[in-house]
Every structure is written in structure tokens, then in C-alpha cells.
Amino acid sequence: MTARLFEPDSAMWRLNRERFVLLGGSAAAILQAAHPTVALGVAAHSRFRDDVFGRLHRTLDAVYAVAFGTGADVAATTSLVGAIHARVRGDTPRPYSAFDPDAQIWVLATLVMTTVEMHRRVGRPPPAEELERFYADMRLFGRCFGLDPAVGPQTWAAFTGYYEEMLAGPLLGSHPSCAEVARAIALPERPLVARLLGPMIMPLACDYVPEPVRSRLGLPWRPWHRRATRVIERCVGLGLPVAPAAIRFAPAYRRARRARSRARLRDRPNRSR
Q1: Domain segments of the chain: what residues?
Q2: pTM of the predicted model, to two decimals?
């Protein structure tokens, strides 16, 4: 049976397989861009104004490849992402690098907390022991992209403290590039499809970004944003029990399940002998 980094009974599989996690995708990208090092890299080395969905899609592909893929999938993805990140460095207006450990642990933190928060809002809130296992899985995920195992909080309790300190501290949103990139994500103008979907994206993006970061980034927020997100969450939550797997679960997860089922059939002893 083909080896995988994470097994079907892992917290990584259970929490990342749900498509409703994508509701928080724009907010996660905005929170990442709130870190000055990330924002400077994105602003200088990507077409963030014209390719908002493309960046989100590439991030999602990398998460799914490592979470559900084979060892070969993980190796190919980490090699590709590593090559891209190696070019993301510069000295103007201040030194930045995609391999900056403080930025790396913050990017990982946004993925962790967005996934957990979406489960709390839409699905079943993960119990404490699953949160601990999920964070350990995500730490391993981070190592695939160069995160030093010694960097950042090592337990779920320490992680939540770190996350709250980052939100309340002075770093996030402290450079003009942070607001520039964040607004391009929340209020995309190009491509046309992103602009047309903007009225739906914007309430989710702005409501899921917590204060005081939202205000620092200059994101628009109105009380109706919260009401809109609650309606969306409730509708999605009510549909979960009856949603077919093809709609509810990520394609990468479904492919991985089918592959494991085929492998088990091949490995099963021939009972006719």
C-alpha cells in the first residue's frame, strides 16, 4: 500500500476534507498578508491584483497534496513550492524572505485557526484531544515547507496564546503593503469573475478577520456582514447531513479514499487458494 504522510484516521484528514473550510479561505489569505514579511513578498513577487483566486487555488492545492497525497505527491509539491519560495526575497523597503521563520509560523497559524474556526461555526467543534492532534499534524505539514521544528509554539495551548498575542500585538498590519494586499483580496477588481463574486466574498472575508487587525487593514465592515455570514453558515450546516460526498468533501480526499480502497483490494489474500 502506497505510503502517505497522514493516515485516514488522522485529524489532518478529518478536518481538512470538509469543503466548508473554504468559506474562511479569503480571511486566511488576508491574515497572512497582515504580516509585513508576507505582504512584501506577495506585493513584489506575485500578480495579486489580477490573480487573487489563483493564489488561493495554489495554496489549497499544496495543502491537499500534502494532507491526502502519496509520498511522491508530497515530494513533488514541496519541491515546487520550495523553488517558488526561493525566489521570494528582497531588501526593499525592508529585508524579507519567504523562508523567514516568523512569517512561516504565522502563515501556518492562519491555516490552522481558519480550519478550526470553520468547524466550530459550521460543523462539529473539534474536541480538545483532536485539536492537539491536528496541531501536531499541521506542525509536520509546516516542516514539509521548511519550517524549523523548533520554531513557534509546540502545543495547542501554547499556539492559542501565540495566536491571540499576534492579533493584539503591533506587528500585523504595520506596513502599508499589508493593507494594499488585504484589500485586493477582500475587494478584488480582476479578473471579472472575482469582481462579480465580490459582494459574496467581501462579507465573509471582512467578518472572519478579527479586530483589531481588520481596522488596521482598513477593511470595510458593517453589521450586515455578520448577519450574512451567519445565514451562510446556517445554510451550509443544515445541508451537511444530506450533502453527497461529491459536494461535501474535497476531491483530493475522495481520490485518496478510492486509492486506499483499491490498494486494500489488491493486498487482500486470495481466499480461493
Answers
A1: 11-260
A2: 0.92
